[in-house]
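Dear support,

I submitted the protein below through the web form. The confirmation email said the job was done, but the results page showed an empty box. After a refresh the structure appeared. I'm attaching both so you can tell me whether what I see now is the final result or a partial one.
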Amino acid sequence: MRAEGHLPDAGGATKGGSLSYSGSNGNAPHVATELSATSLRRVPGWKASLDLTCILVLLPLWLPLMILLMLVTRVASPGPIFYRQKRIGLGGRHFFIWKFRTMRLSAETRTHERYLENLMRVDCPMTKLDAYGDPRLAPFGRVLRASGLDELPQIFNVLRGEMSLVGPRPCTPNEFAHYEPWQRQRVNCLPGLTGYWQVNGKNKTTFREMIAMDLFYFKNMSIWLDLKIMLKTGTVMAGQFFESRQAPHRSRQEDGSPRSETMALQNPVESAPEI
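What the results page shows now:
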């Protein structure tokens, strides 16, 4: 399994298009249970209707794709097709997300947790740990992760009302435990499959910039902003996949030799700015 990282008090220029945000360093509740009732009700009535409409309209696209990826995952690696992972949802409530399994059955997860904890402390881009290869990945797992298609089963989390198509990515309980008080404001918003952060830099941004973008979205969410983010997501996913295919080649050109996967996994602190 993998813990997905996210970041703090940040004002910074956004990375894409006409969308813009400003950082926030306001005080937030110390624990999720102290979040105000007003904040917890910040789920607009149009959210569920827009999500359901988009899911039904795009059914001929995502359902065959999901069936194909189920078959590929089953053939490529022994073990379950899906896995569940506990995440933090609206108001700090726990729920389980569904993903396509991208790791081998014997893969350990503590490496990703340590890597994410370091990204939360240092001000560097949140490049994925497996950008230059990860021996724990199952066959075809890197393609799924680079394209973001491993997240596709979370459509069912959206249908269950645990997520929205657009919103901050749900963090893990371990990540949430390391948040500063003001950073916990991001759980006032229903988590999403894609979001403002994903289409405005994502792995090229720092943890602090990510949190600032999530808070900007929470304070400015609208049906039009959701539609803009959805329309931009496909292009961004394609670009990220292309970059992930080029990264190993660039690394070899710069260093003169393939980057050591083992060192990246064993020493995530020193390798964080380079991965």
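Response: this is the final, complete result; the empty box was a page-load delay. The first strand starts at residue 82 and ends at 88.
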